[in-house]
Design a protein that fits this description.
The structure is a homodimer. Chain A is α+β, with helices and mostly antiparallel strands. Helices cover about 20% and strands about 40% of the residues of chain A. Chain A has two domains: about 70 residues, 2,3-Dihydroxybiphenyl 1,2-Dioxygenase, domain 1 (Roll), CATH 3.10.180; about 70 residues, 2,3-Dihydroxybiphenyl 1,2-Dioxygenase, domain 1. Chain A is globular, with a radius of gyration of 16 Å.
Chain lengths: ~140, ~140
């Protein structure tokens, strides 16, 4: 099996709040939007993020309704920016769009990173980071210093 | 904020089982492996999948230990293959590597897809799909029919 992810799909209890946050709030463009079901955004070359109605997700994956939280837990998405200043600026934009700060911008434990955390309206955690040791070469290979 | 994900990070209760599954089992190559902490795999141009020790993830995101499940829940990763036959074949490989079938290969509800689901040793859900309406153009733009 190739070392490749094509879709990241997240259980989303409130799709309307998600649409508002990512499109009106952040200015993102959905590739496909099926109200009440799923919204797809392209988030990297060849990669889609799917925000999938939480009940449909539960049914589709055969998960039990009892006990498990409705949304996506134990996972985060990271977005890298070009400077420390941009970390605070981007977190400000996410908050303006309806996000909630989980961790104010601060230096990370290793790697020289500076980062903060914001939850979207469905509790999906976004890390906004400046990571001077991270770069992507011309053909898309990631390098970590 | 650009419409871009750079890292997908998953809380991983058993990093050693994850390493065994993805490297020995599937033949994947880590970009970085810090035993007891995190394993990074590049999974798309410019995108890393980070399997992060679940307790470190919890501490890093300020989550409470009580109630929340330790691993990643309410999310799945999808891997597309070129034919219906490859769906069954790939699922067989994941099972051979130590995965657990959650859904046998079958036709999906819409879009003409044929897919199945496998959980990795930490419960991370992989969808293996043949989706004839999905393609990626030369510059990495995804098209959905």
């Amino acid at each position: 099996m190739d070392q490749q992810v094509h879709f990241v799909t997240l259980a989303t209890p409130d799709l309307d709040a998600a649409r508002q946050f990512y499109t009106a709030g952040l200015g993102w463009t959905p590739l496909m939007d099926v109200p009440g079901e799923i919204i797809f955004f392209q988030v990297a070359p060849g990669v889609l993020l799917g925000l999938f109605d939480a009940e449909s997700f539960r049914r589709d994956t055969g998960g039990s309704a009892s006990g498990a939280p409705a949304g996506a837990h134990g996972m985060s998405l990271s977005h890298n920016v070009g400077s420390r200043e941009e970390v605070a600026l981007t977190i400000g934009r996410l908050v303006h769009a309806g996000g909630t700060v989980l961790k104010d911008p601060q230096d990370g434990e290793f790697g020289g990173i500076h980062h903060g955390l914001v939850a979207d309206p469905n509790g999906i955690i976004w890390e906004i980071a400046h990571n001077p040791g991270w770069r992507v070469d011309q053909i898309g290979n990631v390098r970590l210093a």
